[in-house]
Design goal:
Layout lengths: L10 H9 L2 H13 L3 H30 L2 E2 L2 E2 L1 H7 L5 E5 L3 H6 L6 E2 L2 H4 L6 H10 L7 E5 L6 H11 L7 E4 L2 H7 L30 H8 L5 E5 L3 H4 L15 E3 L15 H10 L7 E5 L7 H10 L5 E3 L3 H7 L15 E2 L1 H7 L2 H5 L5 E5 L3 H6 L5 E3 L2 H6 L4 H8 L9 E5 L6 H13 L3 E5 L3 H6 L36 E2 L11 E5 L12 E4 L15 H11 L6 E5 L3 H13 L5 E4 L4
């Protein structure tokens, strides 16, 4: 007998095929032969072959019908509704117990990760728990939570880590929220204990999990590795403190778990997710480590990148920030995304000072942008005087600026520390901006005042910094260089239509008042002075984030700072880089 699972509208064909079996065919053909009716024999054979061919084609088509509503490792509520009573489907509710008790999808088995935890447990105990849910190989495991959160993705990671085939693991797209939005039933009735499953853990999938040593090494190589952090901005910038230190792991790129979801709690499209990642300069060629506070929220980017976008090198770091801050080495925590853009007295005194230069380990050029008169009255040792007017007049003349920097010993491959004597002033920010446009590899700003330098008892000199060939052993003169500028496009722009980012432009008016001449597009007002303390240092990252959010600066945008005075825009440019915004520009003039 030939049995097929075919749609109901093929009932006639099912009956016809079921009526024919090999014995019947053989008997009918023999009978026809005995009657020497060759025509009948041929017709019978052709008829059987035709029906068999139709059945075979329908068998090929049938899996496609079964796959309707499945996209990779996501299933739609429509698919789940049709398969809810399928014995080969195990439905797991990963929501917290109070939510499950209040309402859940009929037939769902409760698993509260906050009750059972995600810490290490003996494999035998984990296996026993999986079996108690009715999990066996060959079954489809569908997980959900309330929608748009991280419980289902964390359960997905656990099952995959302990060896259940990822091809049979699925997440309900949109979760309970989308299920109810579609008018589908929920219940308070507890699900009966299922028949014990037979799944055994034979091999753990270590390739998807990172431990602290590997993660720590990756954190020091941001070019080849990405630490993708699923925390929200309040946590990331230090506004909320859950552990011993506020902030985030150094070089972590913030991509909040919420940003992976649409308003209806379903995952964003592959195209939109790739757009976000491209905006953050994250590519499939990099090793990607997902992280968060305790290894749970990190499962959202892990699932999205590995199973929706098929990025090949993605690992979840379960220890995350909790393990990082618990390490006895007291590993650092940042609040700004790029704190190395700011240099302070003790740091500069050593790395830019005489001892480091004598031993050849200093790669620092100190550029003093004050007027010549102020420089001659006293300056930091080894500082080079390049008044800010030189930067202003050569914004569009990189060759001329390079001619000035070369004989002074400025090296394009080293770090320039811009010194203004009063922290992050407009002059310091403008020099920073122009040097970045010029192609300088590393630029930072000295954020302390000259008064604080003196108060610490550090040296101030009136002698000009010598530049030229060394005359004797121990001579610390700055050697002339051949400064080769590599002018960067898209940093200082004259025409707002000359650039196009991944997201629409948002213009940030950076002065005290919004310029009379407006811009075509969204304009927000963030006076640069609002982002600075009275001593010339940037405000705390958590406070800057609040100011930017309140002003309406979006997380995803091509940000263009503008003002009648471009040096005011330069301050905001610096602050936005300090905060980790990846696409920032300055409009040169608004007059």
């Amino acid at each position: 007998m030939l049995y097929l699972l075919l749609p109901e509208n093929n009932l006639v064909l099912i009956q016809e095929i079921n009526r024919i079996n090999s014995n019947q065919i053989t008997f009918q053909i023999k009978t026809a032969k005995m009657k020497k009716n060759k025509k009948t024999v041929m017709l019978m054979i052709l008829r059987y072959r035709f029906l068999a061919a139709i059945a075979f084609c329908l068998l090929l088509v049938q899996p496609l019908v079964a796959q309707e509503g499945i996209k990779g490792n996501l299933v739609s509520v429509t698919w789940l509704e049709k398969n809810l009573k399928n014995a080969d489907v195990v439905l797991l509710d990963a929501s917290p117990t109070p939510i499950y008790t209040a309402k859940h999808i009929p037939g769902a088995i409760s698993y509260d990760i906050f009750t059972y935890g995600v810490r290490e447990m003996p494999v035998a105990e984990i296996e026993k728990r999986y079996q108690s849910w009715g999990i066996s190989r060959g079954k489809k495991i569908v997980m959900y939570d309330q929608g748009g959160t991280f419980m289902a993705t964390r359960l997905f990671f656990s099952l995959h880590y302990y060896g259940f085939p990822s091809t049979e693991l699925f997440i309900l797209d949109g979760g309970l929220s989308k299920w109810q939005e579609s008018g589908l039933p929920v219940t308070k009735e507890p699900t009966p204990v299922p028949k014990k499953g037979s799944f055994t853990i034979s091999k753990i999938n270590e390739l998807i999990r990172a431990e602290l040593p590997e993660f720590l090494t990756a954190s020091g190589d941001p070019q080849n590795n990405v630490l993708l952090e699923a925390l929200d901005p309040d946590w990331h910038y230090g506004g909320l403190q859950f552990f011993s230190k506020p902030g985030h792991i150094p070089n972590a790129i913030m991509l909040s778990g919420d940003d992976f979801y649409n308003p209806d709690k379903t995952f964003k499209s592959d195209e939109e997710l790739k757009k976000i990642l491209a905006y953050l300069n994250i590519s499939p060629e990099q090793h990607i480590y997902t992280t968060c506070g305790g290894g749970i929220a990190a499962s959202v980017p892990f699932f999205a990148l590995k199973f929706l976008l098929d990025y090949p090198m993605v690992k979840l770091y379960p220890g995350s920030q909790l393990e990082w801050v618990s390490d006895q080495r007291e590993l650092p925590i940042w609040t700004y995304d790029a704190p190395f853009l700011m240099r302070e007295s003790q740091w500069l005194q050593f790395w830019g000072g005489q001892t480091a230069r004598m031993y050849g380990i200093s790669n620092i050029n100190i550029v003093d942008v004050r007027p010549v008169v102020a420089y001659n009255q006293g300056h930091l040792p080894f500082a080079l005087n390049i008044p800010v007017d030189i930067f202003t007049s050569n914004i569009n003349n990189p060759g001329k600026l390079a001619e000035i920097l070369s004989p002074m010993g400025v090296n394009v491959d080293q770090e320039i520390v811009v010194f203004s004597g009063e922290g992050l002033t407009k002059d310091a920010a403008l020099a920073f901006l122009v040097l970045e446009k010029l192609g300088q590899k590393k630029v930072s700003v000295f954020v302390n005042s000259m008064g604080e330098w003196v108060k610490l008892g550090l040296t101030v000199t009136k002698d000009s910094t010598a530049a030229g060939p060394k005359k004797e052993s121990g001579d610390l003169s700055m050697l002339p260089t051949n400064y080769s500028s590599g002018f960067r496009e898209g940093i200082i722009i004259d025409d707002t239509k000359s650039t196009q980012g991944h997201y629409p432009k948002v213009f940030i008016a950076s002065g005290k008042n919004i310029p009379v001449k407006g811009q075509e597009g969204k304009v927000v007002h963030v006076p640069y002075s609002d982002l600075l303390n009275t001593d010339g240092t940037p405000k705390a990252a958590k406070d800057i984030w609040k100011i930017l959010s309140k002003a309406g600066v979006p997380r995803y945008a091509e940000l263009v700072c503008f003002s009648d005075d471009p040096s005011e825009s330069a301050v905001n440019y610096f602050i936005l880089k300090l905060m980790g915004y990846p696409d920032i520009k300055v409009l040169k003039y608004n007059r």
